[in-house]
Amino acid sequence: MNFRRDISALNEDIIVEQLLRSHDPDGRWLDSEMLLQEVETILSFVLQNDVSRPLLTENCITTIEVFDSKETLPYAIFRISVQMLCPCTGENEIRKRTMVLFDLLKEYRWDAKAVLVLGVLAATYGGLLLPVHLAICDPVAASIAKLNQLPIERTKFRPWLESLNLLIKAMVDVTKCIIKFEKIPFKQAKLDNNILGETLSNIYLTTYRVVKSALTCMQQIPYFKQTQQAKKSRKTAAELSIESRRAAGELSSLGYQLLNIHTRLNKQVEDCSTQIEEEINQRLRNINIETHQDNQDVLHLLFSLQDDLPLQQYSRQISITEVQDKVTLLLLSKPPVEPLFFLLQQLYDHPSNTNTEQNYEIIWVPIPSSQKWTDEEKEIFDFYSNSLPWISVRQPWLMSSTILNFFKQEWHYKDNEAMLVVIDSNGRFVNMNAMDMVLIWGVKAYPFSVSREDELWKEHGWSINLLLDGIHPTFEGREICIFGSENLDWIDEFVSLARKIQNLGFQLELIYLSNQRRDERAMEESSILFSPTLQQLFWLRLESIERSKLKRIVIEPSKPDRVFEEVRNLLDFDYGKHRGWGIIGNGSTAETVDGEKMTERMRKIVRWGEYAKGLGFTEAIEIAAEKPCELSHTAVVPFEEALTMRVVTCEKCKWPMKRFVAYQ
């Protein structure tokens, strides 16, 4: 067989059978890779010869948890160490104790079994060797070493330490292979049964070797202490030297065996990983064109490569089946920024959101800035995933690199942008980025497909509703005047004229939404609605409208589009050339007016005074754009009828007419 010289093929089969009988995983999960990094850091530090090198570690063991288990990591380490520290005499007892350890670890995956045992080894030898390691430069460490009867002179046990170091490195290397194998998503792709069966058998036996070797290391602690205890021992120095060399030789032998195992196992795992990755890549390339019964196959392929409970809502872990028969919106982004909060407001808190919210779910897929998640990014993710109502990928730092590369290469995800990919209840990709349509229409965009976006543009033109719905919902039933400028003199004149017009009885709300922020306190003193958040969301919506329209203009370039032209003019507005701009309307209408023309017309309305009472502001602005009649006109209206009329306008120029009472 590939992995055994001292164990017959029959014994291999017996061991594998015993290991499988003791293997009963219950779904608990340990970040084996992170814990192994911690183990490697501890042991490489205490085994190094250069005591002046500082301890460098990015991870803290207190941040490593055992998920889906009542057992904490420290308690698991303690429980295993009790068995590993019990003396074993002879090879048979070590084998029996090894199987006892597998019984203790039956609920864990194979990688976790190996890493937990190495964790016990790191905790034990770290505690023993750290005072010895620091004794040369730290008197306190030297005193601790003496009290524990530990040798301070490393030269006396250097061969044994070198053998221990060799074995530990070999155990760490083969454990990395086991971890890599456990991360292969076998559920989403098929592998040749013969290759898989042979590799699995070798994974079981390699895990057995790691546990047995770690147990052997623990049994050699007396040899480590024997140099200091030689004076009290009845054995001669020569006898102690022979025993020490025998112990070092045993560790070296185990180390070389594991190194040989690592070479072969690593190739097997690489072959398995390559085959699975190729098949998954092929499935991903066809994901948009394959026919599915529901959305489960697609979501499992994207998120369940390594975990049956890959999602969470707040702190509750959920499975993919909970979003079955729903439209799923995959939100790909960095940790949330303000536009994404607006997205949530549109889809979860919008007044129009009634029964529709039962038919769709957002799944947040956070994408880190680099390949490795930082502690800060993990903290941000934990905060938002436990605070916001959307579903999120649980432990996104464990997502397959294959899937992340697919998002970037095939879906063209960019680091500084957010994507909202829509999958309908039948598993079809109906919109590769619905972000803009959601930011424009919110829940009205359901089911968020490209065809629905086309329908919405046929239903909506240039209007105040298009600009403010969902951003400023309290405008219903009133006339709105949105204005923007960087010219403070023009703003003051505009506001002064608007106040005079309001005093004439016009129901008008002013909203300042320039690209540049003016002093907020000055705006409040002028009773102007000014909100930095409203300002940001307004321009965000304009950008979304522009992108949405551009996609359609590419298809029909010759067709004029008023909405696109209006938005483009606002986004490209030259504040140096023009004094300002204004948009007026009352919900379903909107008119854009140049700032200079706006104030000119407003001055006319002020001059009309009480004769303009009864006109709407938008109507008055439109009338003021017309030239008055050159000749005077008279309209005779009965007194009682005149009392009920809101305003009397000229039949030709539509300007309001002055009222006179005539007696006949």
TrEMBL record:
<dbReference type="InterPro" id="IPR039299">
    <property type="entry name" value="SEOA"/>
</dbReference>
<feature type="transmembrane region" description="Helical">
    <location>
        <begin position="114"/>
        <end position="136"/>
    </location>
</feature>
<dbReference type="InterPro" id="IPR027942">
    <property type="entry name" value="SEO_N"/>
</dbReference>
<dbReference type="InterPro" id="IPR027944">
    <property type="entry name" value="SEO_C"/>
</dbReference>
<feature type="domain" description="Sieve element occlusion N-terminal">
    <location>
        <begin position="11"/>
        <end position="289"/>
    </location>
</feature>
<dbReference type="Pfam" id="PF14577">
    <property type="entry name" value="SEO_C"/>
</dbReference>
<protein>
    <submittedName>
        <fullName>Sieve element occlusion C-terminal</fullName>
    </submittedName>
</protein>
<keyword id="KW-0812">Transmembrane</keyword>
<dbReference type="GO" id="GO:0010088">
    <property type="term" value="P:phloem development"/>
</dbReference>
<keyword id="KW-0472">Membrane</keyword>
<dbReference type="Pfam" id="PF14576">
    <property type="entry name" value="SEO_N"/>
</dbReference>
<keyword id="KW-1133">Transmembrane helix</keyword>
<feature type="domain" description="Sieve element occlusion C-terminal">
    <location>
        <begin position="451"/>
        <end position="664"/>
    </location>
</feature>
